[in-house]
């Protein structure tokens, strides 16, 4: 159960951090968010990730806690990454006109 | 608009180009030269996180163990049996069953085999009866585990030196890769699909960066596990007398060493009582191993060692008993700072302290590491294919890399699955059956190399990926036909080792099928912008998977 809690926190944290990057904002919203919103996402993401670390350290202590945190963050980052790819391609499919020949160039 | 600005901004930043370029070269060539060995080490190491479960699956005769037997009783039964089959053994040691094993693995030194040569015996014992188990002869999951750091068909030490060299290359590749990767944070979540080399690079970066703490840790700690072999000089200088050697051994493991036997016979006191004392100290299921020296002699000693579950350290903790009287002589629960550092790093590599979830995390992130090496290898050809003067007739170096990639990535999947097929299909009475399972693995692997050389590269990729998918998908069927433990049976019995293995094979089959389909569907796109001065490739910029 603590595993699940920590993993969900890591997922939320990486989702916020991903939304704070310019490329994801462009891919998902078509425009950048305001600098204040971006900063807020970044701070929230970092804070939630530290919270996940706190949960694990409180539960398992430093040794096992850090090992589990490393596993949770790696996997959560991977899941958010795949979700971002999925969302972006779904959005592109929904708006075929959005693909200009120029944006397909290598 | 905005991305164009970003792009321009990036292109205008030449700072640090020199070092990045030289690091990039180092990364590419360090990664390539040992890449095929590293891929095999990564994949076999990854599955080794489930080596005990694999071993259970490969010995289907041993029933699913729904409940953990009383460790004290099991220890007594197996100790009695060892006393009978290896009387006067200078040393024997058994690993008690836990949630992941359903048999007791024990090894012993044979009495009277002195003169520099030590003779060993080993066997698996039935926890319920104490007798040797009668299962098909197989090395089980230990084959992948041992292959992971010492390979096969060569002296063990050579294998370990090769593994060490590969790990050093990996370490170089990791450090140079991090330096080469300019924008770890900006491009953390970047993936540009359908863009050939760029997509491969983005995937490679994601696999590397997300698992970076693990990849760096696993490579470094891998070297630590064998550091006494790679750097023996300090130890050789500092440790010279037998007494010092004994002291060193006690800092590193719980295998107590035999002293000189007195020759006076004295039966061993109750091993069950000793295990119970250890259980009182560390917990019901916390006893890992029982080792005895000179059992049956008046100088006998028994060490009951704490298991690895739940503590991130391989440093030994054990209670030492006098054999004939069963009196507690000593309790060791700590080692020096240097030994403890080694113990922690060693434990991090093996991950044996893990609960089930953490074990899966180890497995999945390690699989990301395997994919990191795989994408890196493939990228070498993707990048160069576009620059080939004549894509239909690539130069010899390119062809070697391309064919080795096919056999070492897709071919390894086929060979590893074939090993499991061999476990189910080779006749039980075959002499050296366990060795033949391994010969089969290497024979199939060699065949995939031959296939990769003989077929066009793209076709070879597709055919081998399909072969792996088919073998994996049909393995649960084969298991259902050849054993009485099919998937529906293991699910209703809550036998998660067998059910998990079947489900894992099906998911891996799906993964290979997706890769095969994507390779087959991939149509190399002609270049949208003709490159000047590259007449040979205009309209034919070929990408991976096309020969």
From TrEMBL, chain A:
Signal peptide feature range: 1-20
Keyword set, alphabetical order: Membrane, Signal, Transmembrane, Transmembrane helix
The organism's place on the tree of life at top rank: Bacteria
Membrane spanning residue stretches: 36-57, 64-88
Keyword Transcription belongs to the record: no
Protein name according to UniProt: DUF3325 family protein
Organism: Azospirillum melinis
